[in-house]
Amino acid sequence: SQKIEQNSEALNIQEGKTATLTCNYTNYSPAYLQWYRQDPGRGPVFLLLIRENEKEKRKERLKVTFDTTLKQSLFHITASQPADSATYLCALGDTGNQFYFGTGTSLTVIP
Amino acid sequence: DADVTQTPRNRITKTGKRIMLECSQTKGHDRMYWYRQDPGLGLRLIYYSFDVKDINKGEISDGYSVSRQAQAKFSLSLESAIPNQTALYFCATSDGRVHGYTFGSGTRLTVV
User: Fold this and answer.
1) Is the CB of residue A57 less than 8 Å from the CB of residue A50?
2) Which of A13, A59, B23, B45 could form a disulfide with B91 if both were Cys (CB 3.0 to 4.6 A apart)?
3) Which of B111, B107, B112, B1 is closest to B46 using CA atoms?
4) A93: which chain B residues are within 8 Å (Cβ-Cβ)?
C-alpha cells in the first residue's frame, strides 16, 4: 500500500525566513498532490493542488513543487509570519476521488 | 454558518453503545467523506459517497456504517463503540473536479 512521509519533527523558524516542508511517498504514482493547513481542534483547510505534469505551483507566499522522479513534494512559505504557525498536511490522489493523507508537519514561526 | 457542519463537537460514550455522528453541508457538493484522525497516523478514510445512492468503504470501515440521507447529509454510526475508536472524526465534501476537500470542524469522540 502507499506510504506518505512528512517531516516527523516539528519545524521552528524565525519570522521572515522561508519555511520548507517535505512530503515523500512510496508505492504510489499519484496524479495529484494537495497541501492543507490544520489548526489545533479544527478541520484541515485546502491550500494548493498540483498535478503530476506540473513542476511548480504558486499562490501568494506559497510555492509547491512536485517531483515524480524523486517521489517528493516540497512546500515553501516565504516571508513567514507567526500566523503561519500550524500543522501542514500533504495528500495524494490518483483520480481525484480519494486522497491519502500524510501525518503532517508542525510549523512554528518565532517572532 | 459553516459550509460543513458536524454534530456533536464532542462526545463521550461507553463501550458497547451505539453512536451516530452527523454531517450536513451547504456547498452543494455531491461527494462526501468520513475520516478519522489519530496522533501519528494522520487522516484515514472510513467511508465515502459520491451521491445519495452510492456508498463505498474506505481503508478502515470495520466497525462503522454510514447513511446518506440526502445530498447534503451524511451520517456515520458506530454500532457498538470500543475504546480504540476514540479519535477525532472529520466529515469532508468535494465537487469531484479535483479541487480541495472542504472539511468540517470535527467531532472528538471518546469511548470509555
Assistant:
1) yes
2) B23
3) B107
4) 98
